[in-house]
Amino acid sequence: MRTLDYQVRVLDTLDAYLDELKSRKAEADQIDAVRAANPNLPIPAMDFTEATWARMQAAGRLPPSRVAIPFSPRKDGCARPVPNVTLKVPTGGGKTWLAVNAVSRIMGRYLAKNTGFVLWIVPNEAIYTQTLKRLKDRQHPYRQALDRAAAGRVRIMEKSDRLDARDVETHLCVMILMLQAANRQTQETLRMFRDRGDVHGFFPPEGDQAAHAAEFQAVPNLDGYDRDFWPHVKDSLGNPGRFKTAEQNDLNQPENQDLLSPTNRVRVIITKAALQEGWDCPFAYVLCSLAAASNLSAMTQLVGRILRQPHALKTGVPALDECYIITHHAETGAVVNAIKTGLEKDGLADLVIEVPPGAGPAGTGAARKIERRDTLRTLQIYLPKVLRVDGDGLRDLDYETDILAAIDWRDYDPREVARAIPDNPRQAASQLQRISLTDSGREHFRGETIGTGTEALRFDASYAVRVVSDLIPNPFVARDVVGKLLSQLEARGFDEAKLGAAAGVIVDTLRLALDKERTRRAEGLFKDDVRAGRIQFRLRVAGPNWQMPDHIWTTEPEQSPVLRSATDEPLTRSLFSPVLRNELNTDERGVAVHLDGDGAVKWWHRNVAKTNYGLQGWKRGRIYPDFIFAAGGNAGADRIVILETKGDHLQNPDTDYKQAVLQFLSDSFSWDQAVPAGQLQITMTGETVECALVLMEDVPTQLPRLIQGHGQRRLD
């Protein structure tokens, strides 16, 4: 079964987490042993899950969406820390495949065993039925993945099955349960917690009251009877695992039937959200997306959901060998191209999951560590983050909350937008396109137009408000802006028919103007807050800084070629060694070799986008610089430079924006020497931090000046 690129990234992060978790758990166990041997000493217990999160965060191994999120503890019924992981992937992203791989990694990498108990909870009857069917099928890749993890000793169980401790000791027992309507019942009515008589081997024999009392003492949240005079642990399914689920949904839903059976009477199923909830319909033909298809990635995922054919075979009937997508978008061609690209890149979304194991993309292997260079192994490197002052504390700047939501649109006048709308706008048209597989040639997918037609439309103000909701979050303010625009157009003579004909142009022009205005206002807010100290770019002797990790990860094979100097000598100043040649493009290799060959450079690091150091500006996405290096000084550095490089052909508004952000942050950098009480402080080395952007054509002239620290700071 081939693992897709984004699934590789998910499992790579999970591997890193489990490795770190295992190390921290070993430390916590040692501390617990010391505490047990010295009960009179005030030795605090260690929350190994929180320590793991902190180490992952410091090493830059958390997903970008989690970097700014504080640790969220989980405790069991005895107040012990419980590790927890959430794998978040899009609809059709192969969550079940990731789940079976996660079970394999947890059992082998963290628990170091291939037997035990897995509770597999699903949200509804449809997913329950299909999951149970696949995991029980020994020929299915999902079951085969579990068999490999447990050396073939797998038991797939339902809630009503007999549970014996001997099975858990000798097999990997996977119990599938449904978590539906649990909040509508009390614990006493849940079958999970009823005394059932077929749960054996987990608790002392009936009648050994001393042993039962000891169990209650060790696990206080066990269910039982008469703890004081006749203690007895309840023989329920819930006690061994201390979990709760809901009654099974006994509805005879159509999607639980065998739709491919020739005797099945179901001919048509109309559904609103089943495809998003994980129902793997064996064949679906029509997708009607009523919302504007602005999220092209989501469209690709949905299209992938309806590309299935019965038994993965063509019928020979053209109408049945095609699927149909009805969607709304101003540029149908953009949607078609995005879908074609997505299908080619993702391998038909979740359909390519059903392929033999070991057929992964070239160059993708198991993740392995690359350590610091020996001479730099103990060097502590800290970089400032863009932080927001929040009461008495500091947190990472959040674009949505701190920038976008703070923009006041109430005074916005769309007069210029109204003036830009032509009197004779282009007519909106419908278009029918076909995407088909090709048997030969360079393109795997071919798109062709098979029909067009002009539409008679009306301008929908509510729809316009939804379209600009990502720019103006407040719908009441957005509706006021749309209302002002309509009034100004009506004053120009636009009646209902003319507004309908120009609806697409009006909405697109409004979005373009609002996007420019959002950037202008966001920049003003950002800079005002920096000058007022509400947003800070400082290196602190205590508090939140970004710390350079002590190792990085690569999926390149062990024998991958390493980058060498211009004279074919080994690199000597890279922070991490070796530097793998295939992980840098041609331009980046040139910069790396230049940095490594300059005697003023103490160390340099190729920063990895999305996982390493990033800077938040006044636009949504973070800026991930390409290189970080230190220059001058004897004890490490007196200047740390954050370098973004751009190709010669990339001098565009995005380049200008990044250059403006980096220059402004350089000008705003300072040291914060205040040390809050009770916090440890880093050694204050006093270095400065500079940020710069250099075009590749200017690297030979500008980079040496940047390393030396003189000349113009803004590198144009």
How are the SSEs placed, and which strands pair?
Blueprint: H1 5-37, H2 48-58, H3 95-110, E1 116-122, H4 125-136, H5 141-149, E2 154-157, E3 163-164, H6 165-170, E4 172-178, E5 199-200, H7 209-218, E6 224-225, E7 232-233, H8 238-241, E8 286-292, H9 296-305, E9 324-328, H10 332-346, E10 368-371, E11 382-383, E12 385-390, E13 393-396, H11 399-404, H12 415-420, E14 429-437, E15 445-454, H13 461-467, H14 475-491, H15 496-501, H16 503-531, E16 535-540, E17 546-547, E18 551-554, H17 586-596, E19 601-606, E20 615-616, E21 622-623, E22 627-631, E23 639-646, H18 653-668, E24 670-672, E25 688-695, H19 699-708
Parallel strand pairs: 1-4, 2-4, 3-5, 8-9, 16-24, 23-25
Antiparallel strand pairs: 6-7, 10-18, 11-17, 12-13, 12-16, 14-15, 19-22, 20-21, 22-23
Number of separate helices: 19
Shape: globular
Report, as a whole number of angstroms, the end-to-end distance.
Answer: 49 Å
What kind of assembly state do the chains in view correspond to?
single chain
Q: Estimate the mean pLDDT confidence.
A: 77
- Backbone structural class: alpha/beta
Major sheet: order of its strands? Answer: 13-12-16-24
Biggest sheet descriptor: 4 strands, mixed
Q: Tell me the helix content.
A: 25-40%
Question: How many strand segments?
Answer: 25
Strand content: 15-25%
Question: How big is the Rg?
Answer: 30 Å
Low-confidence stretches: 181-190, 241-252, 346-364, 677-681, 711-716
Keywords:
716 residues; alpha/beta; 4-stranded mixed β-sheet; 17% strand; disordered C terminus
